[in-house]
Amino acid sequence: MMKKFLLIPFLLFAVLSMAACGGGSDEPFTPEQPENPGSGDDSDNHPDTPAPGGNGRYLVLYASRTNNTERVAQLIQTTLDCDMLEVEPETAYDNDYNSMLERSQEELAAIRQGNYPPIKTSLENFDDYDIVFVGYPIWYSSMATPMQTFLHEHAAKLAGKRIALFATSGSSGISTSVSEARSLCPDATIIDRTLLLTSSGLSQMATRVPSWLEEIGATREETESPGETSMKVKISVGNRTITATMEDNAAGRDFLSRLPLEVTLNDYNNTTEKIFYPDPALTTEGVTRGCAPTPGDITIYVPWGNVAIFCKSWSHSDDLIKIGRIDGDGIEALNIGGDIAVKFERQ
Ligand SMILES: Cc1cc2nc3c(=O)[nH]c(=O)nc-3n(C[C@H](O)[C@H](O)[C@H](O)COP(=O)(O)O)c2cc1C
Questions:
Q1: Which residue's CA lies nearest to atom 12 of ligand 1?
Q2: Which of 81, 155, 240, 294 could cysteine-pair with 53, CB 3.0–4.6 Å?
Q3: Which of 2, 8, 10 to mutate to test the pocket of ligand 1 (most atoms within 8 A of CB)?
Q4: Does some domain include residue 39?
Q5: By alpha-carbon position, which residue is closest to atom 10 of ligand 1?
Q6: CA 193, 198, 201 angle in degrees (round to 5)?
Q7: Do 207 and 239 belong together in one domain?
Q8: From the CA of 60, how far away is ligand 1's center (Å)?
Q9: pLDDT digits (tens, 9 = 90+) for 226-266
Q10: Torsion over CA: 168, 36, 157, 144 (sign)
Q11: Atom 5 (ligand 1): residue with closest C-alpha?
């Protein structure tokens, strides 16, 4: 019964896939670069090391059987010049398409019972990464099983991290797999904007990938000297422009990764603060708490998850985290009653 139910959407994508390659092949795309730079070693006892890129802020993880997802992963990797690692099943999938389908259905059914099929890829920690990209093919509307296992096994280590999902499919959507990612990694932030390339969309990869990376604020920026310039923010308030410098901590970098951002700052406590609620809340993992704000300080009020820009001084609170500061006397532009529409951009 379940198999029949699963077969209906599958037959649809299979037909589309075959149409896309113009023949009877069940493998819709020819791999361009079959090389697996991030492959782990064959023993499952040792954590793997991602193939390093020049930019250590991002990691691209991907699972791929027929290399569609791998091609997208490689494009993200080269665009950002970042680390990459392939997530592989313990036993490779059969080349025979029908037995592959059967095995994947069995694995998906096992996952629903809480039994995750073994993989040979593991990672010690994700400490250095601001964003972890997670890519996979859609299998029966779900996330391909090796990646589900990987997320299940690394959920604790991914807590507090931002995860950007990308997927390839014949024609199905990504939403079921987004829900799966959220429940597999409940303590990570799954970035709302995801990237799905269906078989007809894969040819637009060269334009779709860079614009998605820009939307989520992932840039190929030098990591050697993050310094002042890269932490600078331009804030447009009416026809005035002021600047701010973000703290070089996880929360400050998370804020920068959301830019550009247009928000209304709400007046709070008689213009003591101007506040807004980033959605999702900014990560505060590993960031020192406690701040006695002075005018110009940009903070997070941890219990509520809002950003608060102080126009007046306030007493020390352990619930405040400083994430940046408006430069010079720029705070005067915000030190007026009422709500104010502003636009934050990278400078
Ligand atoms: C077991 C299996 C199940 C699949 N299920 C779906 C599906 O439900 N919907 C869909 O649009 N495509 C489905 N596909 C097609 C793949 O998602 C698509 O070909 C994808 O690009 C393959 O990525 P890869 O080359 O990285 O393995 C399925 C493919 C396989 C092998």
A1: 170
A2: 81
A3: 10
A4: no
A5: 170
A6: 90
A7: no
A8: 20
A9: 444 468 999 999 989 999 999 988 888 889 888 889 999 99
A10: positive
A11: 139
Atom of ligand 1 nearest to the CA of 29: 25
- Dump pLDDT digits (tens) for 284-294: 877 889 999 99
Spatial distance between the Cα atoms of 144 and 68, rounded to a whole number of angstroms: 13
Question: Does residue 53 form part of some domain?
Answer: yes
Domain count of the chain?
A: 2
Q: How far is the CA of 26 from the centre of ligand 1 (A)?
A: 10
CA 232 to chain centroid: 22
Total-model pTM: 0.60
Cα separation of 258 and 279, whole Å? 10
Tell me which residues have their CB closer than 6 angstroms to ligand 1.
Answer: 9-10, 13, 17, 28, 64-70, 100-101, 104, 137-141, 168-172
- The verdict on 246 and 289 lying in the same domain is yes
* Distance of CA 168 from the midpoint of ligand 1 (Å): 7
Residue matched to tokens 């791929």 = 64
Q: Are 113 and 40 in contact (CB under 8 A)?
A: no
Burial label, 240 (beta-carbon count in 10 A; 0-12, 13-18, 19+): exposed
